[in-house]
User: Fold these one by one.
Assistant:
Number 1:
Amino acid sequence: MPQINTSKVSRRDRHGREHVVRVERTGVQRTIRCDTCGWRQGAQFLPWLKAAEHLAEAHQATVDPTDSPPSR
């Protein structure tokens, strides 16, 4: 039985709402799933880049919540 590994890409839109796309890996196959709209796609190469592109295009979510603001 193949092991399933999951990671996520999250971004915030201009209203502060967080949108998440999960990247699931089963063996060599990767599937991208959006928690917000249910969109899903298979991705063999660069799944995290495709996830970030979906968030920017479909949800206008471009702010990475893990980026810390510059110190003053």
Number 2:
Amino acid sequence: MDGDSLAALRSAVESTLNELTPHLGLMRTEAHMPEPWLGDSASFETWAFYTDHVMGAPDGPFQALLAYEAQLVAVRDRLVEIQAEYDRTESDTASLFGSRL
């Protein structure tokens, strides 16, 4: 993989994070239902399931999205490290061999 490919990959990951992170922020603040909306048994059951399984479950959809975000951050950070190492290697090689390449 060359430097341009690394930069393009990192840009794609950052773009995904830039789109995902604000939506997760909204979910943190606005996706929780404080109570059943009608007070009847059907809305209570729906509210309880949603609260327990979607937003609150450690293996539920919301936690999966948070884990996905964390993985993207880790990938982005690792790509930054790889890019820095690549740039150092390219610089060292250019210094070592100069114009003979």
